[in-house]
Fold this sequence. Notes:
Pyridoxal 5'-phosphate binds at residues 105, 155, 176, 199, 241-242. Pathway: Cofactor biosynthesis; pyridoxine 5'-phosphate biosynthesis; pyridoxine 5'-phosphate from D-erythrose 4-phosphate: step 3/5; Amino-acid biosynthesis; L-serine biosynthesis; L-serine from 3-phospho-D-glycerate: step 2/3. It is an enzyme of class 2 (transferase). Catalyzes the reversible conversion of 3-phosphohydroxypyruvate to phosphoserine and of 3-hydroxy-2-oxo-4-phosphonooxybutanoate to phosphohydroxythreonine. InterPro entries: Aminotrans_V_dom, Aminotrans_V_PyrdxlP_BS, Pser_aminoTfrase, PyrdxlP-dep_Trfase, PyrdxlP-dep_Trfase_major, PyrdxlP-dep_Trfase_small. The chain has 362 residues and is an alpha/beta fold. It folds into 2 domains: 17-260, Aspartate Aminotransferase, domain 2, CATH 3.40.640.10; 263-359, Aspartate Aminotransferase, domain 1 (Alpha-Beta Complex). The chain is built from 9 helices and 14 strands. It has helices spanning 16-25, 44-61, 75-87, 104-113, 230-235, 245-260, 263-283, 312-321, 346-359, and strands spanning 5-6, 67-72, 96-100, 118-123, 148-151, 153-154, 159-160, 173-176, 193-197, 208-213, 288-289, 301-306, 324-325, 336-339. The strands form 4 sheets. It has a 7-stranded mixed beta sheet. A 3-stranded antiparallel beta sheet has the order 11-12-14, covered by helices on one side. Helix 2 packs across helix 6 (245-260) and helix 3 (75-87) crosses helix 4 (104-113). It starts with a strand and ends with a helix. The structure holds 4'-deoxy-4'-aminopyridoxal-5'-phosphate (PMP). The site of 4'-deoxy-4'-aminopyridoxal-5'-phosphate has 11 residues, from helix 3. Residues 10, 75-77, 105, 151, 155, 176, 178-179, 197 line the site of 4'-deoxy-4'-aminopyridoxal-5'-phosphate (PMP).
Amino acid sequence: MTHIYNFSAGPAVLPQEVLKQAAAEMLDWHGSGMSVMEMSHRGPEFISIYRQAVADLRELLAIPANYQVLFLQGGGLGENAIVPMNLLGRCAQPATIDFVLSGSWSGKSIKEAARYASVNVAARPAGDAFTSVPPQESWQLTPGAAYLHICTNETIDGVEYNFVPTVQGDTPLVADMSSHILSRQIDVSKYGVIFAGAQKNIGPAGLTLVIVRDDLLGHALPICPSAFDWKIVADNESMYNTPPTYAIYIAGLVFAHLKRQGGVAAMEQRNIDKARLLYAALDFDDFYANRVAPENRSRMNVPFFLRDESLNETFLAGAKARGLLQLKGHKSVGGMRASIYNAMPTEGVQALVDYLNEFAGR
Length: 362
Ligand code: PMP
């Protein structure tokens, strides 16, 4: 069988070692006689899996002690409602939430939050396309805003922040890091809330990670479902309701694997190298084009177009024949997209680059 490289935006490629370990432990986890899927979330076996996963994540991201790590459900889109329901109780009503519109996902966050408060789009792109992060000097922030929401890596548009914005007063910074968490070092202390769906760099779909500063707990609106009230979830070690246990287990294996790889710093260097390799092939001549401003090009999601779009289907068929899968771009953008998350090996990027060059007749 041809070796497969999966460039899906998510659910996405996971480390082979993790999948092999999960397979080996599937029927009998550590002599317990059962699969992790069958264990009580309140039993000592699962509690140990959960605590190790949290400890490893804390170490990987150097999460300060005054932040909680929560494992929830509801995905990134769920958080678009869960964040306002948890934070709006902090400030006088009517409240305003600031947003920076940098792509499709921040756009969805704006629409959802508008159901709970008035929203101020502090910055948006100059034209129709999402090809850069609006520079912070241009942002029209609201004094006393309930929070400022950004999406630090726009999965569909391939636009990634290369700076951490400064906020005014005690307005918390909220970041949707779904598609690049653990791919680069971050200073957690600059954020009030970080959230991420798991299905890119963390593990299987169904698990949502929230990292929240302690002082932002306990302000949920009365309408907030208890199972999504971060304080209740934190007080119950993410086990107020039954958490997605198997997804947490796989995430734990991914965290342990990342530590063995040298942690986030080592991963970041690999990601820089992989992205450089791919963008260089796209920039070589005008056969292909990536339209994102160089300083905001995502290291994780690389959208690109063929100069002659009538060749799209031929390109995709040839890619598939070589085991290069899921390269079709998102329907709202068109063209192609290669997602090269942590678990995409350099050999996979090299195989794509070889194909790009071959297809362009270089
Ligand atoms: N935010 C970002 C940046 C995403 O990439 C995605 C999913 N691709 C979402 C939010 C939505 O996540 P979910 O489908 O888990 O709700």
